[in-house]
Amino acid sequence: MGDIGSFLQTISIQALPLVFAITFHEAAHGYVAFKKGDPTAQMLGRVTLNPLAHIDPVGTIILPAFLILTSSPLLFGWAKPVPVNFRLLRDQKRDPIYVASAGVVTNLALAAVSGLLFRFIGFVDPYAIQKALYQGLSAQADSASQMVFIPVALMCVASIKWNVLLAIFNMIPIPPLDGGRIAVGLLPYGPSQKLASIERYGIIIVIALFMFDPFGIIRGIIYPIMNLLFAIFLGGLP
């Protein structure tokens, strides 16, 4: 029973920040696309903060839960991509960059807000933060306020983790990831078209990159950037 209770507690702390991170990320894509001339996502009900519109059962729920349960060092997942008809955007070169950037900017903003809330809790009750950081889910509250502060602090940490993960993962310059679409928009025509042509294989390439890391990009670049941002948003705390 203890293991089940611990698992459910872990999921409850991790799930809400993950769902918020994914929902805001996808809704931001749809909103900016709508503002730039493409009503596709709006017409399909995807410009919404209702998480049910964006959740992919496997990528949003089953896979992340399995990775958390098995204490995997690799956290990976996805949502249903917001449909964007790039041909309807007013500026075919510039607007796709805005649409692609919207999700990443939103995730970084959510991480910043979570960091501010985390520091506010630390200002009000430093002991709640210490217990959350060093004892985690096993922390015992010494007061009624800590019964709220400790789980909220843990959710802030999870929110920073998930939002930084989504932001940096999506900035990998391989389409159809956001970074790939940004690169396609920024590069000259020739290289841009060559990069765009690999989109059908993009997800396979990204998964292989994370699984095998043949050039040390994940260990040498991606993870250090994620750890740096995590520490910054958390206030420089370990």
Helix content: 55-70%
**Shape, per Cα inertia axes:** globular
Give me the number of helical elements.
10
Total of domains: 1
Number of distinct beta strands: 0
Q: Could you explain the architecture of this structure?
A:
This protein is mainly alpha-helical. It has one domain (2-233). The protein has helices at residues 2-35, 40-43, 57-69, 95-124, 126-135, 144-170, 178-186, 189-196, 202-212, 217-233. Helix 4 packs antiparallel against helix 6 (144-170), helix 6 (144-170) runs antiparallel to helix 10 (217-233) and helix 7 (178-186) runs antiparallel to helix 8 (189-196). The protein is globular, with a radius of gyration of 19 Å. The two termini are 31 Å apart.
Short structural description:
With 238 residues, the chain is mainly α. Helices cover 68% and strands 0% of the residues.
Please tag this protein with its features.
mainly alpha; 238 residues; 0% strand
Strand-helix topology:
Layout: H1 2-35, H2 40-43, H3 57-69, H4 95-124, H5 126-135, H6 144-170, H7 178-186, H8 189-196, H9 202-212, H10 217-233
Helix pairs in contact: 1-3, 1-4, 1-6, 4-5, 4-6, 4-7, 5-6, 6-10, 7-8
